[in-house]
Specification:
This protein is α/β, with parallel strands linked by helices. It is built from six helices and five strands. The protein has helices spanning about 10-25, 40-55, 70-75, 90-100, 115-125, 130-150; strands at about 1-5, 25-30, 60-65, 85, 105. Strands 2-1-3-5-4 form a five-stranded parallel beta sheet, sandwiched between helices. The chain is globular and about 40 Å long. The N and C termini lie far apart (about 35 Å).
């Protein structure tokens, strides 16, 4: 899988994220502080990673900032992106299952390496629900995106 990764800081957990994704066999593209010369601001690098998901050059993305909040907000401004800030494996599983999230947002401050592995395990094991109500909610967000970009 092609994974776009951004971080506004070159922190140990961000480096561990890159190593973990590569160890799992994913092709990783980096943005922000993880890519020399890139704009490291959370809004810019999170948008860059999210745009790769929206345009199909990445299958998913992981965006990081100190709290994870700014990265998730920036990513969610990109039409077609459903970014979820996940601080635990249960939330990551639910984000994939019920929300069909395609961008994982992480806090550099709160995410330890063991927790990172648990979150990634749940994220990659999760599959979008086929439940009609869940699909209806995801489609509603897609319609909101389309309405926002066509006005």
């Amino acid at each position: 899988m092609r994974i776009s990764v951004s971080s506004d800081m070159d922190e140990p957990v961000a480096r561990a994220l890159l190593a973990e994704l590569r160890e799992r066999g994913h092709e990783v593209r980096t943005h922000g502080a993880l890519s020399p010369g890139d704009d490291p601001r959370w809004a810019a690098c999170s948008e860059a990673a999210a745009r790769e998901v929206a345009d199909g050059t990445a299958d998913q993305a992981v965006v990081c900032c100190w709290t994870g909040t700014g990265a998730s907000i920036a990513a969610n401004k990109v039409p077609g992106v459903r970014a979820a800030l996940c601080a635990d494996a249960y939330t990551a599983d639910g984000a994939r299952r019920w929300n069909d999230a395609n961008v994982l947002a992480l806090s550099l401050r709160l995410t330890s390496v063991p927790l990172l592995r648990e979150i990634l395990d749940a994220w990659f094991a999760g599959r979008p629900s086929e439940d009609p109500e869940d699909r209806s909610n995801v489609e509603r967000t897609a319609r909101t995106d389309r309405a926002r970009t066509s006005s």
